[in-house]
Amino acid sequence: MIIKLNSILFKLLSFTVIILIVSMSLILFVSHYQLEAINEASQNEIYSERIDSIMEILSGGYRRLMEKPNVVDYIKEYQQASLLAIRNRYHETEGYKIYPFVIKANDKTFVHSGGLNKSVGSLDSKNIEKVIRLRSGDFIYKSDLGEKNWCVFKYFKGWDWIVGYVIPVSIKNIEVRIFIRGFFVTLLIVSFIIIFAAWFFIVRIISPIDKLTDAAVAMSSGVLDHKIDVSSNDELGALARSFIFMRDVVSDKIGALNNEILDRAQAEEDLSVVRNYLTNIIDSMPSILIGVDNRLKITQWNKKAHDSIGVSYSDVKGRRLVEAFPALVPEINRIKQAIDERVIIADSKVEIAIGDKTFFSDITIYPLIFENVEGAVIRIDDVTNRINLEESIIQSEKMASVGGLAAGMAHEINNPLAGILQNMQVIQSRIDKGDAKNIQIAKECGTSMGIINKYLVRRGIRSMIEMVMESGIRAARIVDNMLSFSRKSETVLMPQDIRLLLENMVEIAKNDYDLSKKYDFRKIEIVREYDDIISKVMCEKSQIQQVFLNILKNSAHALKELVECQEVSGLGRPEGVAARKPKITLRIKEADNAVQVDIEDNGAGMEEEVRRRIFEPFFTTKEVGMGTGLGLSVSYFIITERHKGKMSVKSTKNKGTKFTIQLPIEGHEK
């Protein structure tokens, strides 16, 4: 279409072009200076905010460090963690990476250079001293290459660090120039569009646009069947037909979108079901399951972990493993190894303390082996009952196997021992000075029994004979104890008051010559804690008393050092001993259809290795000649085999030992 110079269309178009040119020039002129000012302020604010974010990182690390009991041990670790976060705080613009720097104020050295050794943003010693002198602020300076740089920085008092950025001024204002160029191009494009649109709408259709507007309003309201006039064959008709085509396409797209929304909703519902199903599986596991990422921060925490440790998943999510579960600190290196090497690592019978409870666990660490996923799943299984059962089985097997050994040894020892005792009795009868046969033989030999006995006395032969007899009788008792492992009990169990049996053995222990001579049992305080009403137990009186006496002797032996310390008025006492008075506590109570007897001392205690072997036959910690190692093993046999009860021991080194005996009450025997 030819436009006439005197036409309204030409005048309107000319006026529009002039207005656009003048407007563009004014806008570009004003915006250039305004944008530079705005950019200057925004850059100051942006880098100030970036420095503030770094200060928050340092403050957070410093606060967590101050919460540690041994701050000095963790300073380097927390500083390194903070520096690692700072190194990731770079800003990239127009191909440049602008890194923050960290200067240690006290010795004027870089903790983190931030790329300051490069030509971009270099900072010489003179400007470093200026930064340290000002501590916080900003200034512009020229580098060795003559380039202007802007330095902004702040001071962190906690570690005496100065944190900041160095930005070349050319880079700092580059965004303004980029914006001006883009803005000019945009204005130019918009101007041409406006001119074209003005020409199009003035020349062509002005009135039919209202119809399309009505159709557009109808479509925006959801009415997609609004009638559109497409009778003309000009551009408006084409536009109308395009509008109709767009309406139909939009209608189809809306239908497809609705179907997609329904499909996605169903998929999300299915995903939610699967997620809940997997969560229920994990929470139903009898093991503690803990998921961690490569920084050992918790990502998974099942119900067993919540129930065992008493902390919910929401409270530990994102926290470090050592903070949420301190008992796993010894396993940290294994967890890191499993993640780094992607191998399964297992550790069995690990002793774990949660609160005031200690239990044994099998710990298995499974690394996450999917692509781009680093971390591990820690599985903790409580095996305390299994270990206790294994110990019980081992102890039972030891006690069972010793029966045949004891019987064989006892019979082998018994025959020569009987010969020794029998012949010693004959010797005693042959030197009896009142026997007529002895007097006759002595007379035939030209001597008398009086002279012979006088010789035997002066040479100590009679005392030697008595010592041989005493040792033989003692050996016979040991053999009898050994045989008790293999013999079937033929004794009859009778109901007994366990309190009376224990009290009788305490009195016997007080008057026992051996105890008085070696351990001075009477200087030990006896504390009684008996329930008022105690049912009778079915037992063989002498055997139970033998058990009580054996335990009391062991307690007296454990308290020997404390008794001696009471006599030396504190001279040469071991550390911590003088504060305790030798004491044996006796407790009797009913529990689980049984009478429980506790005999507890506050003596030397035992190591764990000794405690495990305490009921083994012939195992003793006493000096040579002080014990046979059969007392407690026989006691264990009497309680568990003869009386179908239970016997156990707990001990802590330098704190004491407690023996616990449980005997079924009358009417509840197994």
How can the largest sheet be summarized?
A: 5 strands, antiparallel
**Spatial sequence of strands, sheet with the most strands:** 4-3-7-6-5
> What name goes with the CATH superfamily of the largest domain?
Histidine kinase-like ATPase, C-terminal domain
| CATH classification class of the largest domain | Alpha Beta
Which CATH architecture of the largest domain is right? 2-Layer Sandwich
Distance between the termini: 117 Å
Percent helix range: 40-55%
SS-derived structural category? alpha+beta
> What do we call the CATH topology of the largest domain?
Heat Shock Protein 90
Number-wise, the strands total: 19
Question: With helices defined by DSSP (H or I, 4 residues minimum), what is the helix count?
Answer: 21
Please indicate the percent range of residues in DSSP E strands (runs of 2 or more).
15-25%
Task: Give the CA-based shape.
Answer: elongated
Number of domains: 4
The stretches of 5 or more residues where confidence is low (pLDDT under 50) are 569-574
Q: What's the rounded overall pLDDT mean?
A: 77
Radius of gyration: 49 Å
